[in-house]
Fold this protein.
Amino acid sequence: MAVQSNSDESRILRRFYPLATFPSEAFKELCANVTVEQIQDAALFKKGDTNADLVYLLDGSVSLQSEGLVVEVIDSESESAKFALAHQLPRKIDAIANGVVRIVRLDAHTVNNPPPAVFREDQGYTVIEESAEDSDDWMTAVLRLPLFQALPPANLQKILISLKTTQFAEGEVIIAKGSEVEYFYIIKKGQCLLSRKPLDGHSEIKLGAGESFGEEYLITDKPAQETITALSDVSLIQLEKKHFLTQIKAPTLTFISHEAMPDAVKNGAVLLDVRLPHLYENSNLDSSANIPLSSLRMRIAEIPKDKQVIVVCGNGKESEAGAFLLLKNKFNATVLKEGVGIEEEEGETDIADVGDNQQDTLQASPHDSDNISKEISESTALNPETEIKLLKAENERLIQLNCDLEKRNATLQAEKDQAENQCEVLTQQIERLKGILNRFTKRQ
């Protein structure tokens, strides 16, 4: 029996990944060709099966078993049920229905090659075209964003488990200037206003459904330099900083070395320096253009979409934030690894108080692309101020490296804990089986 597009089954299907990314018409067509199966206390598939259909759980619970031992129980209400059951081929495990379950089997090629979602550009932000029937499904809103469509399924699964929703009333401040930002936000419904100290015509911007904010402060570890207010009653999806950095930023950004950069420029890439104007004027790369990070969101239309954009800053942090902003707006952006090797002077100038009324500058200047450690070893010929800057840059690089290693260690620790938990479950299963076997042996 086909699934009606406005039925309970269709709403459940809409929560599955990647069906949540399907445009409305394509989703309706898929529903028309889906058959719901009901199975009781039987196998959905067995270890070694090579049938390529993806199996999704609509209702009930399924035990994933290996050699008769229960490895995991998937309930239809769990986050894990939003993904196809044990989809690796050939099947590595048995899937057994616990009582009565309802499932659908979908063609893997159709599911893994969804039609592109429909977007339109409006006042500088991306608006997702959603039908009314999908408007209450926060996961649909998330998975339809280009940023999330590019993430590996394993990352998506961890993200979806960590997402939360929150609401703000019209006029309520979501992020205040100077405050520490702890979340990455995605607007599900409503509009927000981003505003900063008015220096020129680029002082405010509206953010609508499908747009996100907060990432630049999570990446740079700097306080907010603008205020974001709810223009209407808004519904937001939020993700904690640690999950954003490990599950979204890390797999999204790509880097280019100083050695590879000249060839990229020869092939048409453009250099975009996102430092403050006075820092850019003191030292910059040949043929680079300057748009400060604080103005990038508002001046994004000035950047060519048909060319690779190499984002540059002093030490790499702000360029990561700039590249992320460009990537989520469908630019081909990458980060110059370790920046130009010059550390910004902390507290010298408020990021929001300069640069908004500056014109782009294209000017040539000498640039020494030797690595920082070599420069430090030759620093006897430098004046003390320059030597201090180089030492600061090297120190910042080492701090960032240590931070990256700590994040990697945290990820490995989480994976280790998960493996230990699974091992404990298997050990308990084995002990129970041993007890059953001992009782059976005594009866003999």
